[in-house]
From TrEMBL:
It comes from Hucho hucho. Residues 198-218 are annotated as: Disordered. PANTHER family: REGULATOR OF G-PROTEIN SIGNALING 22. This is RGS domain-containing protein. Residues 133-192 form the RGS domain.
Amino acid sequence: PLQLLYSTYVCSAACSSIEVEEVSRGRVYTCLTPPFEELFDWVEEHTLTLLLEPWTLLTTRDTDTFQKVAVREETRQVESEQYRELQTRYEEAVHRLEQHAVAQACRPPPPPLEVPRSPAMWSAVPERYRGYRLGSLLGHRMELQHFTSFLQDNTASIHLTCWLDIEHYRRIPHKDKAQREDKSRLIKDKYLNRKYFFGPDSPATRQQQDEVMSQSLL
């Protein structure tokens, strides 16, 4: 299943490539045998970086709209099934990160990950919105709904669903082999195809697609 995730999203030939940097792809590839739980940490951080731009555009657009219309505060207690699922995943992810932090304290820290930063992009975000992260959205229903709609309007929602599916796969216990295989198969069918990763609008480079293809044939 871990090799499938690598071939689906990370390597150059993947049809659903999320354009991971070559250094990060190399780190993930070297850790495939034997695989371990933190294998896709670099990929996950890169995916979150991809979501930064649409989130920045959304907050900027909302700020402009807010300045043009009258503001009326309204509180609604609406908890959809999707929101409850996201809330559960977020809480489990936080718990897992806390456990991971304790485990990391017992071994040498990994080398720092070189992730490209975009300070100019953050400078375009209003000051009051710069503290928002995906985790922060889960505590604000209306912001989460706006962000999801914005991603859908800009054909970027697949990046968010890809991240959520990987997160779901990661939190499945290794002993539940059947469930992990089902989730792995779902990820492959949903993203490793010509509509996303191997399609004409794929976020992956040709090299990344080739690497994913070579891994899927192992």
